[in-house]
Amino acid sequence: MNVPMPSPDRHRLHSVPAGGxxxxxxxxxxxxxxxxxxxxxxxxxxxxxxxxxxxxxxxRLVPLAAVPEGVIAVNEDxxxxxxxxxxxxxxxxxLDAVPVEPVKSLTLESSVEAPFDVLARExxxxxxxxxxxxxxxxxxxxxxxxxxxxxxxRVKALEAGGRHGVLVEIGERTDVELFVSSARNxxxxxxxxxxxxxxxxxxxPEISEGSSYGGHYGAARxxxxxxxxxxxxxxxxxxxxxxxxxSRFAMLKFxxxxxxxxxxxxxxxxxDAGSAGPAVExxxxxxxxxxxxxxxxxxxxxxxxxxxxxxxxxxxxxERLIVLVSDGAHWTRRGNDGVGEVVYAAKEPVxxxxxxxxxxxVRLHAVGISTLAMYRRWIADGNRGGEVFEPNHELLQQLxxxxxxxxxxxxxFDVLTRYFSGLGAGMTRRVVVGAARHARPDAQLPPHxxxxxxxxxEQLRESAAxxxxxxxxPDVQQLGFRLLESAGNAIRESRRALGTPLFRHxxxxxxxxxxxxxxxxxxxxxxxxDMASSFTPARLAAxxxxxxxxxxxxxxxxxxxxxxxxxPKDAGRRIEWVGELTGALEExxxxxxxLPDAPGPATAPEGSGSAAASxxxxxxxxxxxxxxxxxxxxxxxxxxxxxxxxxxGYDPTYSGPYPPxxxxxxxxxxxxxxxxxxxxxGTSSVLRYRGEE
Length: 693
Fold this sequence. Notes:
It contains 17 helices and 23 strands.
């Protein structure tokens, strides 16, 4: 559904207290501004301009009857993120309707140190469905998600169709994972490596089934044990690049019995960037010595030994994790008689894991090596197998379900490499996101928000009552554009009739942008100097009588600027002064229009360079009138070389004060000819700049 977006010429941004329907990304508008919008509102991109940059934010426009017409109510939390100040100055902004894509999967990385369970619970309760993210056109941009009532999260991975320059929306079906770096959250890990006889089966392609080149007949295949050793080497490489919270490791190999292989002396050892060389070498040797043995599989006994290690040697406060790596085992569910009874734990691994997770907070991840499809293709190549060699991951999935882990990862080289590389950097856990939260109706607005919106409506009514008086005052923005237009006309006519411009066009542009457009918001402290320097006309050797009246009026106005006591100091008097100068320039342009064209081509004064680049003017006694290079004349303070300020709109490269757009109904900005684009005609044989007589 296409809904017209509120625009700056009809609406203003107002900060209001956060609460009720106006929390997080939700901003309120009058229902009349969103015809046909539902209770969830309309997704949009809000872009707020500052002196140096534009800040984009994904928002949801919510129709609320309590919001006055012409107002966009931005909750104070979002207002702070966007840099909206408390003053009356209205920043440049716009709202755009952009495409919205659903998020299929999302991995968020915590930015704070906190227990994993606490962070996962906060994310689960945060109402993620319905939240929006802006994917900028730049692929390298880093994305963050600000969660109401929780910390900010970095977007570690996101799948939403691969598009950029779109909004994406988290839904109830989005797979959300929480990643916590090892530098922020300590985790003690025991790895259980399956060394049963079935691990010798060479049915895993060197490129996995998911690849466009893998899984076909005749592809090179490796034993399952090679896949395990390769993944453990990746785990070590990742751990050696990380230093942070203390984490401890141990590795057990198991068949029908369980043996401790790292650390060799028993217990658990730290394995990270600060680990000594002997510990690292010992782990490498332990991985290299893993071999399939002619024996069966007892997963229950291995889980029991791993839990004992975590209980006796784990660091207090750390997460406790068992990582079971196996090609599975043939297993039949026990009936209800055995479920939860510890006496059967050694024979019933699911009951044991359920007990460990519930009572000791041990969590289980399982990684399944090989798949039934890989095994069957290996058999189809003419190899002999048997039921005991078939990968069977049903038990692993049941263990993960009761052990508080994520869905078991199952596959070949790339699956294990991806899992163990991630495990080396930190822990990942799936988060249940719950249902979407709808905005509440006006009847349930929190009292503080309802009161703030009521006060805002009263203020707007009072302001409207004073509107007649304000309407009689001059509009500064329109006045500024009129001044630019009248200066442009005077410059054009002086080029035609006198063969040289009476004013520097770019200097006049600079002064109006800096000193006039800001009179009502941020008055320029150099108003007098800027206006006098830019609007002092060139001294003529012989002044045509038709110009005397207009030039005298301009001279009187300039003398007022230089008067130490009687000059226009307050904003109101300066606005009047700008209006008087505009009238004098219009009179001057009209007088110039009565003069005939200059007889020959204009010549710039000797040594002055081209007339388009710079117009030399003799200094006034007070030093105001001076030569202004063309680049400087159009480049406000802080803007880069070559900058040409537009007459309206937002320019992120300009760091000085900036004029807002002119009201559409006024018909401004006028289209004034650019004197610099018109070559001068005529001669200046009787005209000279002061100082050149």
